[in-house]
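Here comes an entry:

___
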Amino acid sequence: MIENTSIRELKGIGEKSEALFHRLKIFTVYDLLTFYPRTYTRYPEVTRDLSLARPGKKAAFEVTIARRPMTKKVKTPVTILRQEADGGIPLECIWFRLPYLSSTLETGKTFVFYGTVKEGDKRGYIRLEQPEIYTKDKYSGLLKSLQPVYSLTKGLSNNALKKAIETALVEKSQISDYLPESLLRKHGFPDLYTMLSDVHFPANEETLVAAQKRISFEEFFFFFLSLALNEEKEEVRENTHIPAVTHYYDNVKASLPYPLTNGQETALCDIREDLAKPVISERLIQGDVGSGKTLVAFLAMLLMVENGYKALLMAPTEVLAEQHQKTFSAYIEEFGLPYDAVLLTGDVKGKARKEALEKIENSAGLFVIGTSALISDAREYGDIGIVVTDEQHRFGVKQRKALMNKGASPYVLLMSATPIPRTLAKILYQDMPISVMTDKPASRLPIKNCVVGPDKRGTSWRFIEKEIRAGRQAYIICPFVEQSEDDPSIADVETYTKNLKKALPKDIRVGTLHGRMKDAEKEEVMAAFAAHETDILVSTTVIEVGIDVPNATVIMIENADRFGLSQLHQLRGRVGRGKEQSYCIFMNCSDKEETPERLNVINSSNDGFFIAEEDLRLRGPGDVTGIRQSGEEAIDMTAVAEHPDVMEDAAADVKEIMKNDPELSSEEFRAIAKRLSNIEAKRLYQNL
């Protein structure tokens, strides 16, 4: 079974290369085989006419060597070839650290050079740096295929990763399938080995789509099955926390400096109706970014606090928990409320932690805000009327359950800023009532958007500098942490930060943030930005949720063409949280024909639910794979966008299986049960 076979067992992988694979969270052969390509290269037709070359575009030139290339013996050896080609334009090819090419590229032989065209010097040269070299026959074969392109780490090339996967497919060709034959036949899916082969090295578009469809099905199938197996049948519990007093609640609503939106009013009415029911219930508040969910949570919690109950709110990060505590404390002071908002996070230690826990345990009528630290302490918190989980998808079912069990049958409110297509929401939340908030408070100005090309990067930096001089702050988002050897044109945090610091005046403070940092380090960087100790935060998408800085008025998203529309909308939601006008700059670095249409959707609308629906409509099979196997608590929204039809199939299959064999004990479903346990074991291991 390859689930637990170390990649060291593959030919060609030693200790050093193994460490590089580990950086990509590839530990086993199965991890390697399910490390899917992020996109595919489609090779262009060969030409001898260099006048057709366009800087920044991929091209393939057929060249007959007129003379051997020169080799410069300098500190960094460079091999140079100059060759007159059709069209009367000189072609210059440069390879670094490959001196052996001077003997390989023999006079009179014909080769195909493939790479990204760069403008040469003033003499009108067309230049290719580090082009790939093929014989005509070899390149002709590539024209018919799609070549995988992977997300990489420094020191590990795309070719090395591709070769390792090829080796794994040869050496481990006897791969046992975990989906039963009945499901494969029912949906027309390829078997596991065929699927893995076709997603990495598809012979054509049709085989790729078939492989991706099975991957999407698995994404939904194992997610829904995990939920079904872990679902506990809740007993009907009496509601002992029906609020009778609404004096402070009514006064605060009447004293707000601006009217509540229709969405906020509807959500609060829904909550009031829930709280008046004779049995305990729970509700999901699905609010678009900037729709005012925090105020709704505060008012719902206030209703319980003034009736003598505790109200708990759990946030996914310490920075966000601290922000909520400060916001609640400001509300308490502004409206003269006789209550307190206690903070409990991992950073609250020693005497302060002891005092916070004692206050939580012994006080009535109290706001309690924290992170998962709220559930790490064994003690119960007494009479809790309501528990709120912010960004609920960042927590597992068991974590949310543990928070609820801190009191006796509290009302449960889940909040999410991630727009979910209606079909998925219907399956995921089943009988749970959902309140949707789409409109924004009148005090918030709509974000101004623009889509620009790389030629406007300098102009964008100057605009950001202007905002900083006015006392504001900015985010810049990069897709990668470090430079990709496969495609150095994609922005990465490390290189971008260095270039930005060189380009801007030295007094502008630039911070960096990415997912490879330790949690404590990430919290420190976000806290520094929130405190305006840095002016610009260059980050990967880790800031998508969990950071609220009203003073930030600009977000610039590099390589915006590489992100889904819903993710771009979430990133844009980091600005527009204060009273000042905010701006979002989408940097489009793609030459794909469909990209302008996609980015025009996000450019012309700030409505997250509309954008989510358009994302589904526009993103077709083969656009992005990158689908990982889900654990108990996560699902990749890419799968929704690519194959929304298989989602309902997966849900129906799980329902049928749970009806006929809820223990997965039959011969047919034993492999599924084993696969589930391996998914859970891997998730726990990677979270250590």
